[in-house]
Design brief:
It is a single chain. An eight-stranded antiparallel β-barrel has the order 1-2-3-4-5-6-7-8. By secondary structure, it is an alpha+beta fold. The N and C termini lie far apart (106 Å). It is extended and about 95 Å long. It has a domain of 106 residues: Beta Barrel (Porin), CATH 2.40.160. 16% of the residues lie in helices and 42% in strands. A hairpin with a 3-residue loop joins β4 and β5.
């Protein structure tokens, strides 16, 4: 004689029929959560490649005075820039005259209203310039470019310079 009762039969129990349904619902819920997490963690789509290159209306040599302001809008400096943009390519060069800095610019975005370039410094003997920045050019009137140059200083201050190039 045993001290333990005999096992009960589940043959006529409704539990047996619900178990696959419960596991199925749990699997669907888990798949939905996992899909949402994967969608949220998906890599950003790469920016469309620039295929047209620098248009004729932007190509050539441009220069003008830029007014630099810090993130509070306070004046920091004024400087002159010279740009050389090669038609049909995605590259150009920039020279910041009184600061004695030079760099290359690469076209990263092109719309019907503007061109956006990434600037990478190639020459700065006095270590005065921002190493990397973004230059946006807009042509609202023929023969002139509105320029906006934005970068972050070594100290972490966002600097924005604006001006008109001719």
């Amino acid at each position: 004689m045993s001290l333990w009762p005999p096992p009960r039969s589940t043959r006529h129990s409704s539990r047996r029929g619900r178990l696959p349904l419960v596991f199925g619902a749990a699997a669907v819920a888990l798949a939905a959560v996992a899909g949402g997490v994967l969608w949220a963690l998906r890599p950003e789509p790469e920016q469309a490649a620039v295929t047209d290159g620098i248009p004729e209306s932007y190509a050539g040599s441009w220069s003008g005075e830029m007014a630099q302001r810090d993130e509070n809008g306070e004046p920091v400096a004024e400087w002159v820039v010279r740009l050389k943009l090669d038609e049909g390519t995605d590259r150009g060069s920039a020279e910041l005259i009184p600061l004695d800095c030079r760099g290359s610019i690469v076209l990263t975005e092109q719309t019907d209203r503007s061109l956006v370039f990434e600037y990478a410094e190639t020459y700065d003997p006095e270590d005065r310039c921002i190493d990397e920045s973004v230059l946006t050019l807009r042509q609202r009137i023929p023969g002139a470019l509105e320029a906006e140059w934005e970068g972050t200083s070594r100290e972490g201050t966002v600097m924005t310079s604006t001006g008109t190039l001719k």
